[in-house]
Amino acid sequence: MQMVDIIAKKRDGHALSRQEIDDFVQGFTRGEIPDYQAAALLMAIVLKGMDAQETADLTDAMTHSGQTVDLSAVGDVVCDKHSTGGVGDTTTLILVPLAAACGLKMAKMSGRGLGHTGGTLDKLESIPGYRVEISPETLVQLVRDNGAAIVGQTQALAPADKKLYALRDVTGTVESLPLIASSVMSKKLAAGTDVIVLDVKTGSGAFMHTVEDSFALARTMVDIGAHLGKRIAAIVTDMDQPLGNSIGNALDVREAIEILQGRHVDSPLREVCLLLGEQLLRMTGKAQTSVQARAMLEQALRNGDALEKMRVMIQAQGGDARVCEDVSLLGQASIIHPVVAPQSGYVARMQAAEIGMAAQMLGAGRMKKEDVIDPLVGIQMHVRVGDFVEKGQPLADFYLNDTAQAEQAEHRFLQAIVMQDHKPVAVPLVFGVVRAEGEERFFDA
Ligand code: URA
Question: Which of 355, 379, 200 is nearest to 276 (CA)?
Fold first, then answer.
């Protein structure tokens, strides 16, 4: 079938066949289908959707558009995690060594940050010497020997997604359940792990703004993974405010190390890591219940095993592991500028994406792929939704090396914090868990 006919078929609301999806994915990856036709089809998918079979076919076609990683030489079940992207989301840096300390084999391929969401690779590169460009063979060896590795996604992995994502980013076609689900899952499936835990974000800083949409995305991804023989679960978590207190790169690493050191026991970031870890320990059979799993994870944080895994992982990838004892080795920005509350009141809401954009304006993130980030800059939050603040009290500290954009970033940040005079209703952190066999909701949406 001609590409124009495939576009028209989707435009008219019909399901595409496996052959049509393969023709599109292969033709586009090889450069035979021009961007304007691919963009038209993507927009038709955004508007008309895809059924479960089409979504599974699209995922499979994208998974096999390039290389797939063979992790069988690890000689054990290998686990992975993925977050659909948020602000102040440093879960990977904590969960990977933490789960490894509980006996799991963690092989994580990560990407770079773009827009308001941070990227794990950028964070790790703020550790002096840390190398993220690691071959699949070395990844196998690191995971086999140490239980944990976080590396850059190879260029050859799911190239169709790379090209499609870049096009979606500039054609208003990111926000689509089948497109997001197939994008995430194609990379997970090509990365070759056996057990996958997903953190699906919901709220103003997430791709999915409503809890219902987030559960639907979680369900779609879990179904795709389970259908293809993976052990997979997803948790749906809040992204209406930054998850951790740090939004930057070295700042995020510092927070992750402090949590691995056993600090910040009440932190929502730590809690999400424990929940993700629980799912992995249960799916691998290392724990029979959530209570048992949580006890194992808490113990690894308390007795230093999780921090030790972080040290081993950093060292194995060429980084200066002394940062695990002395976070000042990460360096610090030259200016710390407090951003204060313009009035007294309760923090009612935050626009998490806008806070991420403010951090990006300071140089912590990228607007375009080519932008260079400054690892030391970012935002250290001092408040969460529900806190009462007096006028003039710091809401956050901006870490800066350059004041060029600071005023505009401060304006953007302050616009993102909504204050009111009465205490707001508490926001749940975790909305529920989606497993292959069913879902458990912790709150009514
Ligand atoms: N993350 C991805 O990898 N792909 C999407 O489409 C959205 C979030």
Answer: 200
